Amino acid sequence: MEDEIALMTLPPLENGESLITFPAKWDFVLVCDEHSPDSEKHFKKKWFLEELHRKGFIIKMIKDKKLFYGIHAPSAFFRKYQWLLRNSENHCELLCGQQLDDQEMTSSRTRIRLVSFILQNTEICSTKEKLDELIKKKVFETAFPLHEREWLKTFQMLNWARWRGILKGQQQPIEKIRMYFGEKIALYFAWLGWYTCILLAAAIPGIVLFIYGFLNFSSSPVSKEICAANSTIMCPLCDQKCPFWRLSDTCIYSKVTHLLDNEGTVFFAIFMALWATVFLELWKRRRARVVSKWNLFLWDEEEEEVMMEVINNPEHDPQPYQHSYMRSTVVLILVLLMICVLIGIAHALVIYRVIVTVIFMQSSSGFFRELATTMAVITGAVLHYLTIIIMSKVNRCVALFLCDLEKPRSFTEREKNFAVKYFTFQFFTHFSSLIYIAFFLGRINGRPGNYVRVGGKWRLEECHPSGCLIDLFMQLTIIMTLKQTLSNLVEYMLPWIRYRYRLMNGKTTINSRDHREETEQDPCKEEWLWNYQLNEVNSFSVFNEFMEMMIQYSFTTIFVAAFPLAPLLACINNVFEIRLDAIKMVKLQRRMVPRKANDIGIWLYVLEAIGILAVIGNGLVIAITSDFIPMQVYKYIYGPCLQKNNTGVDCMTGYINYSLSVFSVQDFENYKNLVDLQDSMGNEIKYCRYRDYRNSDDYGYSVQFWHVLAARLAFLILFEHVALCIKLIAAWYVPDVPRRVKNCLLEGKRERLLKRLREMDDSTEV
């Protein structure tokens, strides 16, 4: 039976024998197990191959541990595609006199793309099952196009997919990537290369800001005041067995805070808002130049899809657009529930930090007590990273389920819906905990004598007296560093280990005498086996790579005011990311199905949304998380500089004393359980200080609190309006499409109209 399937498309000779003449190249390979002749899987496989036979496909079978079926499409498909492409609206307005190349339209990537579409949309007549359903039911194991190793060697693609290319500064061969992998992957590498170059423009100001903070490491008057506050007694950080502590104990902590929270932070945040806009506008211009060179500027994805549907089955009615308010409502509710779960996980991380802080504070070791807050932040960040790894897999499954629930019309629509949902879930997974640290930590914990407690037991964390920005910085540094080192190492090593394992598994078969004899008779066998041993690729092409970059872009822009070195780390990471992706695609993974594209698709809208969030996020970080606004309020309203005669006094002198409220120790809820109610001089502690703006008698908010709050809100409104105006001006100032491309498009329209006018005149004369 298998031999019949393998030879079903071969033309018979006059004497009844078969002439075995197979094509030199195969478009696709189907792999399956050898099923029992009486099994349902065997019959479904036979019926599917017969459907391909009716369409004129040549099929060849090779038997090893698995059954391999080589698929070669008839030339009639590509002639139809060539004809429809020439007469389609996609190419009626060629730019600058470009001509369609016949070889281009029937190239390897075009063949694979068209054959992949036909395979995915060929269904068994009796059961209406398509290839995806057959793979899910284990009728077939997999289907993949073949790598062309000779092509890769000839065009030196293997040199691009090597680590040493980083040291040589080798540029990306975008045209060769497009010829082999298709426009969609070529645009990904073009975008990634452009993004990496533009990151340098953001990295340099970030480095300058960090160096400025480092040079003024010990000169900040706020840090000096904290370091000299030996007599300032702070309230305990937990309820039981937690001692009072001196403000000067956190001297180093305050100096590190000044590295990030200084005068240049505001200007850097505004610069990054402008940078994000200019980056997108310049990319749009670069994209226009690239796709116009490929003659895809006017390409219509929907028309391309309909064209392939017509080639596959002219009688098949296209799937119409549908919309169900019921399905949309269900999906929206499920998305909101999933977001609530992700926010709940962030709350669990908060509780973990609270418990760890209490445990370390109650330790008998003074070393652990001093590092209680730091250890809670560090271990909390590592735990957050572990939840990101776990929830990324959960988020993917949930997003796919919700996407299928919507019943998208086409593959492209499914990919867009999936991208939006998956990115939304990933965003909340990565940033829920960071949002709490940035905007809620130390602001909802209450005050001494009236603390907000988790489960009525544990107090919420407090900010450091020098500010909350350092906690956000530590969290960002740890998560981003782990993601760009450990995650990238796993991303490379896992495919490499899987490939080596599968290679070792097949080594015995390859080196056997029978296999060598079969290979000499049929060289296809070794080629097909090698491709099969490579790692399977995702049907969404470079989806995972784009998603990884979107999350990195979010880290780089949204909280950049708290982490000015983020652009530098992202730039260094992307230099390696380009080679890592190249090695995976060329050497470790099966060949991706080449897909047409004239843009990065839905990801452009994601980048624009992140740019807006970056303006809002950085404005909130400076207004709420940073101490920039309280310092300015003190400097110009309450500071010593208001007295014109004190010219020799620094304007920030006395800020720490101004920002700390006074609390009577006797008003503690657990006054009797407090320990060490005496300072180092043996004096009884009657009062302690805490970070807030409250009166010392009734503990109500002071006038300073309302002044600071008003200043924060005013700055936030001003910052966001200025930043958004700058973004709008930059978007207007830099055109999306270069003038040359517009002029070529205009000339193409004119030539088309003149041609039609001449045709009309000729027909009138006749």
Condensed summary:
The chain has 766 residues and is mainly α. 62% of the residues lie in helices and 5% in strands.
Query: Which radius of gyration do the C-alpha atoms yield?
Result: 33 Å
Report the β-strand fraction as a percent range: 5-15%
Q: What coarse outline follows from CA principal-axis ratios? A: elongated
Number of helices in the DSSP assignment: 29
What is the first-to-last residue Cα distance? Answer: 62 Å
Question: Care to describe what's here?
Answer:
The protein has 766 residues and is mainly α. It has 29 helices and 12 strands. The strands form 5 sheets. The protein has a 4-stranded antiparallel sheet with strand order 2-3-1-4, with helices on both faces. A two-stranded antiparallel ribbon has the order 5-6. The chain has a two-stranded antiparallel ribbon with strand order 7-8. A hairpin with a 3-residue loop joins strand 9 (453-454) and strand 10.
